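Take a careful look at the protein record below. Let me know whether the structure tokens fit the sequence:
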Amino acid sequence: MIDRLNILNFFRPVVCKTGDCHRFRHGKLARAETEQREAQPDDELRLKYDGRGLLVTEENRAGKHEHEYDPLGNLLTTTLPDGRRIENLYYGSGHLLETQLRDGEHIFQLAEYERDNLHREVHRRQGNVWRQTEYDVSGRVSHRRTAKERNSVRGITAEEWYTWDSGDRLTEDRIRWPEEQVPQMRVYRYDKADRIISVVTDDHFGECEE
């Protein structure tokens, strides 16, 4: 799964499935500039960055997403192709507190966040769903649980585990859904510049390389 937070904050994983291989072209600063799916060769996502290296626009056939940031580089708003805006509210030097959708004069809460003494997210509520996040001794996300109740092992809708190497690169993740006994696993590989080049799954879909 490729999500918007990945492209804004970390990386966009290569997703390997039969007939669906995502590849990326990197610019001089090792930023992804275009992404194209082999299954749909005419579907191209165009990315534009500002002078600080922050992603400011994403555009494809479906329309354009525009991003605005504060002086510290925190994402403030994302304007959707239909004119609605996703707004982030922060405290301190950039700790996300709430995400909301503004549709004209109407504002809808999308998510609210709780943080520990180190300002790390430990709970997130989206509607009636809670997500709990745990960290390893190095401060990296090691475990996430999504459930219908806070701090509950009942009503779990998804559970995730993450493994990192000494260079803080994600090397493996596992996710388990309620109907599955064994978690699904993905293994990540990187080039010498620490750019992700492949993701191998455990369901025999094979390997996809740049």
Q: What stands out?
A: The radius of gyration is 18 Å. Residues 62-110 form one domain. Confidence is low (pLDDT under 50) at residues 1-19, 204-210.
